[in-house]
């Protein structure tokens, strides 16, 4: 899209404006600036990923051999798997994609000076930070929260999970939920009301579309989770029996409520990555996005249908035969808009003049591995097959292909794409590629063999397994060590970026990068668009 | 006096023990011996489902291959397109990018073709769902109850036959048993007959999961759900708990001894005759207790 801005303040060096000479406390603890809050979110995501990733390394070490003695207490194991799931979802993927990159770039891309509600934005971040403290208490207090991230009762009721750890984990979901909800309201208000003159909805960059759809999913899904978590807290502490069969309640009700939130949550984690991939593919192919409107409305359809497929997580739980058929067909329907996305990305590359810079490698890795994860998703959507695949390692492989590779590759694509814009310093290309290839090999070696384990019948959430599963578990653990080592390469990349002496140009990617952030300085001024840009 | 009494008692008890052993040797052959000839257990570096032990799993295996081959073709197609794009449209080969952003024909094709592919998957898949749901006219019904951390099996047609099944602890594994899969009292079932499982739980959620027989259902307290299977041939089949249930989630496997119908009927008589204790522990029940109702009957 062609844009003109009357805003030429990017000539000023960062920090030249006297108005934002702030103390550390004032700038970082009381921030109202969307870029600073975005930085805080990305820092939170970094911490969440480090803790959650360390837990996953511990898990793979334990599973490297059968009858391993690293973790001998099942409660300890269950606390680790629970914390790993919650941290990776609520404190890594969501803050990185929505709070982090979303906060940084949505206002800039639509030509707005900031988010609609800057203080709400700050409040949203600090709710999440407090939630992190709570989820860590849930891991470390007593024997920890051992119900898995799905928190199914009755295992996490007062009888089977006594102690405060589970309460802290439940409250951490409340805090993360409030945080997401406030953030989502903020994004909706910003995107619907603060676009620059000339930027109609159908000219809006796809990342903004992705965040808009994600925000609507959050607004509709999070309150349901909040309700379910509140009922659990009531059951645990105030003697109600929403989910207690002995009191007339039903544990299956929780599963419905949880997955009514939980399935849209899957799209909440992947849609922003879809948006990032569109920009990266378009930039490095030096072509506009192919089928822009189809791409935008495919996300809207995915978001909509994502709300009516939740019980495919319950095919072996208490649902009727006809419900299975409905939920299977509805689930498979999602493959169509997802196919539109994948083929449109390839069509965007088709005829392009592709440069394989690090962000493009992550984007292409994303597309292929997401297709692999999507293919096993189509397999699992068949209720008849899920009868045998449910909850075994085939499922673990599937959702790590779409999350540990899909969402994580999307995050890395975005970080490498924009880190120069955010810091003013470029990442080292060689080490970025080393990071990509080691991570690509590591995660594939970790998760591909898990398909075989699942087919052979290995259940999830086991700290010890029959000796027959030893071979592929060993390979998987070796893969996790490669991914772990790869993350150290990423730390080195970050070190090089933050100690960089270069000063990047406004548009360091050249002709392919057409959105508004490339018209601002790198890093952008503390307050951008003092004069409103006009999109033509 | 006391020493003599002691030695007499000692000799008597030794004689009694020997007599007991002799009795055991001359006792009727184990009715479940037929199950020992074949074990359907996972093996190292396994790449696919277990060998199907039931028509149910055979159908699942077929559908899995059908769907997985279609999806493999889809992944391969995307992979080929990407390799072509990488080779043909890299900056060093294609210097001037096209600016084309629409092609109505391909945009329609990539909607219509996936819809057709899904239709091809959905039809056999829905048939199998109805097949799996049809638990009518079973030969027998076993009520399976999950507990922390053991299974309880109740043979609905055999009054009083209700026993518990615990995993053999790692340090008590005997030769021929499989660590983490073998149990003290396996579930004994006849081959060739339709067996309905009524599955429930006594405490938290559990998962009754038999990969080689095509069976999986959550065990949910306050609710009963059914599943069914027909076991093709005599042998030992294994399964595990597949829904997180607390600290010994990995310590409550399922072992099934499938025997010919006549042997099964002989076993039910033998088992009920040797049955000494059919009390099921009251809830809540959180620590494993030694229970030996059928120690001789199932081994």
Sheet with most strands of chain A: 2 strands, antiparallel
Please give the alpha-carbon distance between the first and last residues of chain A: 8 Å
Number of strands of chain B: 11
Rg of chain B over CA atoms, rounded to whole Å, is 27 Å
Secondary structural class of chain B: alpha/beta
Biggest sheet of chain B, open or closed, and with what strands and sense?
6 strands, mixed
Mean pLDDT of chain A: 94
Pair of chains with the largest interface and how many residues each contributes: A-B, 92 and 95 residues
Structure description:
The complex is a heterodimer of chains A (536) and B (299). Chain A has a two-stranded antiparallel ribbon. The longest helix of chain A is centred in the first third of the chain and has 36 residues, at 74-109. Chain A has helices spanning 24-29, 34-62, 74-109, 118-140, 165-193, 206-237, 251-285, 292-305, 321-333, 335-349, 358-381, 383-389, 393-423, 429-456, 470-498; strands at 3-4, 534-535. Chain A has 15 helices and two strands. Chain A is mainly alpha-helical and 536 residues long. With 299 residues, chain B is of the alpha/beta class. Chain B is built from four helices and eleven strands; from the N terminus they run H-E-H-H-E-E-E-E-E-E-E-E-E-E-H. Chain B has helices spanning 2-26, 55-88, 104-133, 261-273, and strands at residues 39-40, 140-147, 150-155, 162-165, 187-190, 194-201, 206-210, 215-219, 225-230, 235-241, 254-259. In chain B, the strands form two sheets. In chain B, strands 1, 5, 7, 8, 10 and 11 form a six-stranded mixed β-sheet that branches. Chain B is elongated and about 85 Å long.
């Amino acid at each position: 899209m062609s844009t003109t801005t009357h805003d030429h303040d990017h000539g000023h060096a960062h920090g030249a404006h006297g108005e934002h000479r702030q103390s550390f406390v004032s700038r970082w603890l009381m921030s109202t600036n969307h870029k600073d809050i975005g930085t805080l979110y990305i820092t939170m995501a970094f911490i969440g990923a480090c803790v959650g990733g360390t837990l996953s390394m511990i898990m793979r070490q334990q599973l490297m051999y059968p009858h391993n003695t690293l973790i001998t207490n099942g409660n300890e194991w269950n606390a680790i798997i629970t914390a790993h799931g919650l941290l990776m979802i609520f404190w890594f993927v969501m803050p990185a994609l929505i709070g982090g990159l979303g906060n940084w770039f949505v206002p800039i891309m639509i030509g707005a000076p900031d988010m609609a509600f800057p203080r709400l934005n700050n409040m949203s971040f600090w709710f999440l930070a407090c939630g992190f403290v709570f989820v860590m208490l849930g891991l470390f207090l007593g024997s920890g929260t051992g119900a898995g991230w799905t928190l199914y009762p009755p295992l996490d009721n007062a009888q089977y999970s006594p102690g405060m750890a589970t309460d802290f984990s439940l409250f951490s979901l409340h805090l993360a939920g409030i945080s997401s909800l406030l953030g989502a309201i903020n994004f909706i208000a910003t995107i619907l009301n603060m676009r620059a003159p000339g930027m109609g909805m159908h000219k809006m960059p796809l990342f903004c579309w992705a965040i808009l759809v994600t925000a609507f999913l959050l607004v509709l899904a999070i309150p349901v989770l909040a309700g379910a978590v509140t009922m659990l807290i009531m059951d645990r502490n105030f003697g109600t029996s929403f989910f207690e069969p002995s009191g007339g309640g039903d544990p299956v009700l929780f599963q419905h409520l949880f997955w009514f939130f939980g399935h849209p949550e899957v799209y909440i984690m992947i849609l922003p990555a879809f948006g990032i991939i569109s920009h990266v593919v378009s930039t490095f192919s030096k072509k506009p996005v192919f089928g822009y409107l189809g791409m935008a409305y495919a996300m809207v359809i995915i978001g909509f249908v994502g709300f009516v497929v939740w019980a495919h997580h319950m095919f072996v739980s208490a649902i009727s035969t006809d419900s299975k058929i409905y939920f299977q067909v509805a689930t498979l329907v999602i493959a169509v808009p997802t196919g539109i996305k994948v083929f449109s990305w390839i069509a965007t590359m088709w005829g392009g003049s592709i440069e394989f810079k690090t962000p493009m490698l992550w984007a292409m890795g994303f597309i292929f591995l997401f297709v692999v994860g999507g293919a096993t998703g189509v397999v699992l959507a068949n209720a008849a097959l899920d009868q045998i695949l449910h909850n075994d390692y085939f499922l673990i492989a599937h959702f790590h292909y779409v999350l540990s590779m899909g969402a994580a590759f999307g995050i890395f694509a975005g970080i490498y794409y924009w880190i120069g814009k955010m810091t003013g310093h470029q990442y080292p290309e060689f080490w970025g590629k080393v990071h990509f290839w080691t991570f690509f090999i590591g995660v594939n070696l970790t998760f591909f063999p898990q398909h075989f384990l699942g087919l052979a019948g290995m259940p999830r959430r086991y700290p010890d397994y029959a000796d027959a599963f030893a071979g592929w578990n060993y390979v998987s653990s070796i893969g996790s060590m490669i991914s772990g080592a790869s993350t150290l390469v990423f730390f080195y990349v970050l070190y090089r970026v933050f100690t960089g002496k270069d000063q990047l140009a406004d548009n360091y990617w050249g002709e392919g990068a057409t959105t508004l952030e490339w018209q601002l300085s790198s890093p952008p001024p503390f307050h951008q668009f003092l004069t409103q840009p006009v999109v033509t | 006096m006391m020493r003599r009494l002691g030695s007499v008692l000692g000799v008597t008890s030794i004689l009694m023990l020997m007599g007991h052993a002799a009795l055991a040797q001359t006792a009727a052959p184990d009715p479940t011996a037929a199950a020992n000839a074949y074990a359907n257990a996972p093996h190292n570096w396994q790449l696919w489902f277990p060998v199907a032990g039931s028509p149910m799993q055979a159908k699942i295996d077929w559908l899995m291959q059908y769907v997985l081959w279609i999806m493999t073709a889809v992944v391969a197609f995307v992979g080929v397109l990407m390799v072509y794009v990488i080779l043909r449209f890299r900056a060093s080969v294609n210097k001037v990018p096209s600016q084309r952003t629409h092609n109505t024909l391909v945009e329609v094709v990539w909607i219509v073709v996936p819809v057709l592919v899904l239709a091809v998957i959905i039809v056999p898949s829905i048939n199998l769902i109805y097949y799996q749901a049809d638990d009518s006219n079973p030969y027998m019904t076993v009520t399976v109850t999950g507990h922390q951390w053991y299974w309880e099996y109740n043979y609905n047609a055999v009054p009083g036959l209700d026993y518990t099944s615990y995993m053999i602890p790692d340090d008590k594994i005997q030769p021929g048993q499989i660590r983490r899969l073998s149990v003290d009292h396996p579930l004994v079932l006849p081959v060739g007959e339709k067996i309905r499982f009524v599955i429930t739980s006594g405490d938290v959620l559990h998962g009754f999961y038999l990969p080689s027989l095509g069976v999986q259902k959550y065990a949910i307290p306050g609710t009963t759900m059914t599943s069914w299977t027909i076991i093709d041939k005599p042998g030992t089949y294994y399964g595990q708990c597949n829904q997180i249930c607390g600290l010994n989630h990995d310590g409550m496997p399922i072992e099934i001894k499938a025997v010919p119908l006549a042997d099964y009927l002989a076993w039910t008589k033998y088992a009920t005759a040797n049955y000494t204790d059919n009390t099921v522990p009251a809830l809540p029940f959180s620590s494993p207790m030694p229970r030996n109702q059928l120690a001789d009957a199932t081994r």
